[in-house]
Design goal:
The chain has two domains: 108 residues; 151 residues, no CATH class. Helix content is 78%, strand content 0%. It has nine helices and no strands.
Length: 271
C-alpha cells in the first residue's frame, strides 16, 4: 500500500507539471515539486526500512529494481532541480518516474531466496551508484530532447508554443552537461564496485557477461562524449544527440539484456 500512495503522489506531481507547462502558472510547478519531494521521502523511507529489516538491498526482482529506479530518478531530479533551478525539467522527470512506478507496481514482488550473494557492501554500493548514474543520464536525455526542440524553434523562427515555455539553449546545454558528469562519475564508481563484487562472488573481475559488456559500451559512449566536449568542444546539438543515443543504449542494457540475453544478472530482475 505504501508504494500505491507513492505512485499517487508521483502521478499528482505529473499532473501539476503538465499544467505548469501548459498554463505557465508558478504555483503548479511549486506544487508538483512538493508532491514529488513528499513521494521521494516516503519512497526512500520504505526502501530504507526494507534494507534495515533484511540487510539486503531491495533490488532482487523486477518489481524492486524498477522501484529503486524510480526512487533514484526522483532523488537526482530533486537535487539537480534545487541546484540549477531548471523548473521545466520536472515536465520530463515526473512523468517518467510515474511510468516507472506504474510498471513496478504492476510486476509482482516475487520472493527470491536470500543468501550471501545479496549481502555485500560492494553490491549495495554497486546498485546505488549504478541507479544514480542511470537516473542522471535519463535527465540528460530529457535535457537533450528539450534542447533539440528549442533549437528547432529558434532555427525555424517559430517562436510559438514551445519556444515561450523552454529556457535558453545555454541553460539546457549546461543542465545536460552537469547530468552527464554526475551520471558518468556514478556509473564509473558503480562499475568498479561491481567488479570487486564479481571477484568475490564469481572469482573474477570480468566475465564477459552480456550485462557487463553492454554496461561497458554505455560507459564508453559517455566517456567519448565528455572527452570530445572537453577537447574538441562538442556542445549543443552534438551533445544532445549523444545523450539521447547513450540513453537508448542504457535502456537496452537495463531491459533488453536481461530479457533477451542470458547472464548472471538475470537473477536480479526475476518477474
Amino acid at each position: 500500500m505504501t508504494l500505491i500512495a507513492v505512485l499517487i503522489l508521483y502521478f499528482l506531481s505529473t499532473l501539476c507539471y503538465v499544467l505548469y507547462f501548459a498554463i505557465q502558472k508558478e504555483h503548479f510547478q511549486k506544487t508538483g515539486f512538493i508532491l514529488i519531494l513528499i513521494g521521494f521521502v516516503i519512497h526512500g523511507g520504505q526502501t530504507l526500512m526494507a534494507f534495515v529489516q533484511t540487510g539486503e538491498m531491495p533490488a532482487q526482482n523486477l518489481h524492486q529494481t524498477l522501484s529503486i529506479a524510480a526512487l533514484s530518478l526522483s532523488g537526482v531530479f530533486l537535487i539537480l532541480r534545487s541546484r540549477l533551478n531548471l523548473k521545466i525539467l520536472g515536465t520530463f522527470a515526473a512523468p517518467l518516474v510515474t511510468i516507472i512506478m506504474i510498471a513496478a507496481v504492476k510486476f509482482p514482488d516475487v520472493a527470491v531466496a536470500s543468501g550471501n550473494i545479496f549481502k555485500s557492501i560492494w553490491l549495495t554500493g554497486h546498485i546505488i551508484t549504478i541507479f544514480i548514474g542511470e537516473a542522471a543520464f535519463s535527465l540528460a536525455f530529457g535535457a537533450g530532447v528539450l534542447y533539440l526542440i528549442q533549437e528547432h524553434a529558434i532555427k525555424t523562427k517559430k517562436h510559438g508554443y514551445f519556444f515561450k515555455r523552454l529556457p535558453s539553449l545555454e541553460l539546457i546545454d549546461q543542465t545536460g552537461y552537469l547530468c552527464i558528469i554526475v551520471g558518468f562519475t556514478a556509473i564509473t564508481i558503480g562499475l568498479a564496485t561491481g567488479m570487486v563484487y564479481a571477484k568475490m562472488i564469481w572469482g573474477r573481475f570480468w566475465s564477459w557477461d552480456p550485462k557487463e559488456v553492454w554496461s561497458g559500451i554505455s560507459w564508453l559512449l559517455y566517456a567519448v562524449l565528455l572527452h570530445e566536449r572537453l577537447t574538441v568542444g562538442w556542445r549543443g546539438r552534438r551533445s544532445a544527440i549523444m545523450a539521447i543515443i547513450g540513453f537508448i543504449v542504457l535502456l537496452f542494457t537495463f531491459f533488453g539484456v536481461n530479457m533477451l540475453l542470458e547472464g548472471h544478472h538475470g537473477k536480479f530482475t526475476t518477474w
